[in-house]
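Example (one chain per record):
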Amino acid sequence: MKILGGKNKMAEENKICCEHEKEVEDLKKAIEDKDAQFEEQKNRMLRLMADFDNFKKRTSAEKEDIICFSNEALIFALLPILDNFDRAFAHTDCAKDNTVNEEVIKGFALIKKQLEDVLQKVGLKKIDALGKNFDPFYHEAVITKEVPDKPDGMIVEEMQKGYMLKEKVIRPSMVIVSKKGVEGNE
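Predicted structure:
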């Protein structure tokens, strides 16, 4: 009978041991599941943070564009004033008969420079045209002119300056383009 009781005790201990092993395996599985859920949540949170950071950058850039280009109409309206300053200064050299006061000319030159500086600070840039190849994105050809020593398509004269606001052309340069052959209007 003692043997039988010992076998029952061992069987019972084995059963308890198996139950503990099963509990341990179940706990390990639960921990693995929780770790997987944690990693999934962590990755989701990192993606959301990256999305939010991209959103902030995008909205910041859009805000800068809105601020910059909200001034476009005002800047465009000021361009004829710059053109008139240029035309006036082109004629001051002709008026050297002392009908134009030198100090007045210097004063107007300072005003023009101040206006150009303000416009440059908000992103206005002149389009470089003279001596460049014609580019329809930046230049508007008004006349073609036969120029023997220049290749076809080169800008030989700028009739009106063109301007860009940041990277956007707000007024193309009005230019005369060289052409081999017959001179004429486009």
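Caption: The chain has a mean pLDDT of 83.
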